Amino acid sequence: RIYAKDSRPTCLGRRDFRVKKAEQRRLDILNGLADHVLAKGLPASSVRPLAEAAGISDRMLLYYFHDKSELIAATLQLLSSRLVALLDTHTAPQPMPLDALRRRLAAVLLSNEVWPYMQLWLEIVALSARGDPFYREVGGGIARAFLEWGKAQLQSSTATARAADAARLLVAIEGMVLLKSVGLEDVAKASLRGSG
Hints:
This protein has helices at 9-40, 47-54, 58-64, 68-90, 98-109, 115-129, 133-153, 159-181, 185-190. By secondary structure, the chain is mostly helical. Helix 1 (9-40) packs across helix 4 and helix 5 runs parallel beside helix 8 (159-181).
């Protein structure tokens, strides 16, 4: 039989399989990179240590990601998704008032389970504060995504009030994370007493 170039069933099936296999390999690599960055931090995120963490060569790593910026952005996006999934397991099924959500969220974000994510967040913020445009863009995106996540969790009277409450939640959580990072977790926890 003669088939039109794109209509051969066996080739199309093989191509789809190769694409899915490549996508799965990229995801496997990305998960290894995310684990590495979460454990070692951004200072250990040059191409060579990342390639070693993924168990592949530098060149092969850059085959799956065009450059280091794409590699780091994809890794941080995956870590952000993991954190949101963790947070979702600790939130109530219904929206909550600001003070109740702040208390619940603080307990989660200051926990040992989630603290590596917060340490990484502080590294991103520090690089942004130093003027790094890449980390400013990535950090701003993560913070805006958290604001949207917070809006969905909050019980407020209006959309305007919900947006303001989400901003208050972000500011409060950021302050608590910063305080824990300098050894003042007791002060962060004291800020939760007597609220709501």
